[in-house]
Amino acid sequence: MTNPIAKLRSLHEAATTGEWFFDSYSRVLSRDDTLSDDPDECFTDVAYCPITSGDTGTKQGQNDLQAIAATHNALPALLDYVEALEVAMRDHDIGHPDCPDCEDNRETLDQDRAALEAALEE
Fold first, then answer.
1. Whole-prediction pTM
2. If 28 and its partner were Cys, which of 15, 46, 54, 66 is the partner (CB 3.0–4.6 Å)?
3. E-strand spans in the chain?
């Protein structure tokens, strides 16, 4: 299996560029100022969440859209954080190979990584 962090980075990099946000019409959009000199033309539709009441998104639809946009925007920093923790754990393991608390932590991390890999399988 490909490194799940690398796979998530690759998926993120292949997605529509720019910061994502949502509007009241059940859309996730991206703003990318490199698309045009006109600020009103710098938006790209990314996704549509058709949970509506009339022409306005429902509260659940807004929650879903907010989660999609926030997850996309936070993903690079989250992946950096996970990688830094993995490095810190490896560095700690080198100096404390027989640490019983570390063994429990390693087992939990291995299970979590396996779950992440399973979630990313196609």
1. 0.75
2. 46
3. 19-22, 27-31, 43-48, 52-53, 56-57
> pLDDT, tens digit, for every residue of 6-51?
999 999 999 988 889 888 778 898 987 776 777 667 788 888 877 6
Contact 5, 82 (CB under 8 A): yes
Residue 100 and residue 37: Cα distance in Å, rounded?
59
User: Locate tokens 């292949």: which residue?
Assistant: 14
- Name the average pLDDT for the chain: 82
Q: Any bridge partners for residue 22, and if so which?
A: 28
| Token pair recorded at residue 68 | 């999609």
Half-sphere exposure at residue 114, Cβ-oriented, CA atoms within 13 angstroms: 6
Q: Which positions ≥6 away from 9 have C-beta within 8 Å?
A: 76, 79
